[in-house]
Design a protein that fits this description.
By secondary structure, the protein is an alpha+beta fold. 31% of the residues lie in helices and 7% in strands.
């Protein structure tokens, strides 16, 4: 269930305590308590992650890394941004595209308006509201057995979901059907997957046609951080569109002009 802002409630309780001449027992704020922004305003609290202050080019740290995950689907055509905690020109461009996509002031600076939009788009487990970990893992329950650690596979899948969320929004917020994602080595072998399949790293998702069609999905994926796109016309991919992140770039969906 999506988190709800608690800033008003905390402010009300604090005011009541002060009115009684006491000291608030909630002075040691929980992780999701409102954080002060650089302008002195109180930010919205979120059950997944709460940003405090403003992030801009030159910022660094975990707050930047968390932001990069959410804007990973806005790197520009053919690109992908690094999830490295360093707010450089590529991150600024991605933030600008995210802001423009949602009708915000597109200045590449992440402040309260940008963070509040992200809060609206994510669930308490940090997944985007339209995708789930279960959709991205139909192999096993613990993300083990792939080419990377379980934690890394799950983290890669989270980035993939945010890319899909960006793609979904660009396609008119029409649902995208995810038929599969992460595979352990044994799951990959069982379905006849390629020996170096990015599914085993948590980077990949196989998409059903939905209302957009396989080609519509493949064409849109070029703009949302997917370095591997395989679709109609590529051997074994006439019945789905495969998208993935990771190093290098290989796009092939000849029937779609890719």
């Amino acid at each position: 269930m999506r988190s709800r802002p608690i800033g008003f409630l905390l402010a009300t309780l604090a005011g009541a305590v002060l009115a009684l001449g006491g000291t608030s027992a909630a002075s040691a704020s929980p992780p999701t308590a409102p954080a002060s922004t650089a302008s002195g305003d109180v930010g919205t609290a979120d059950a997944c992650y709460t940003w405090g202050g403003t992030l801009r080019e030159g910022s660094s740290g975990e707050a930047v890394r968390q932001l990069q995950i959410r804007v990973a689907g806005y790197p520009g055509t053919g690109n992908q941004i690094a999830i490295d905690g360093a707010f450089g020109p590529a991150t600024r461009a991605a933030v600008t595209r995210f802001q423009s996509a949602y009708g915000l002031a597109a200045d590449g600076i992440a402040g309260p308006a940008t963070f509040n939009k992200i809060y609206q788009l994510q669930d308490n487990d940090c997944t985007p509201v339209n995708f789930t970990y279960a959709e991205l893992n139909r192999c096993n329950s613990d993300w083990s057995g792939g080419k990377v650690s379980a934690a890394t596979a799950r983290a890669n899948a989270l980035v993939t979901m945010w890319k899909l969320q960006a793609m979904r929004h660009a396609l008119g917020d029409r649902p995208i059907t995810v038929n599969g994602g992460f595979r352990s080595v044994s799951c990959n072998s069982a379905v006849g997957g390629a020996a170096n399949s990015r599914h085993m790293y948590g980077h990949a998702a196989d998409l059903g046609a939905g209302s957009q069609g396989f080609c519509g999905l493949a064409q849109a994926a070029r703009n949302h951080g997917f370095t591997e796109i395989l679709g109609p016309g590529y051997p074994g991919h006439n019945d789905h569109t495969h998208v993935a992140g990771g190093s290098g770039r290989f796009w092939s969906a000849p029937s779609c002009g890719i």
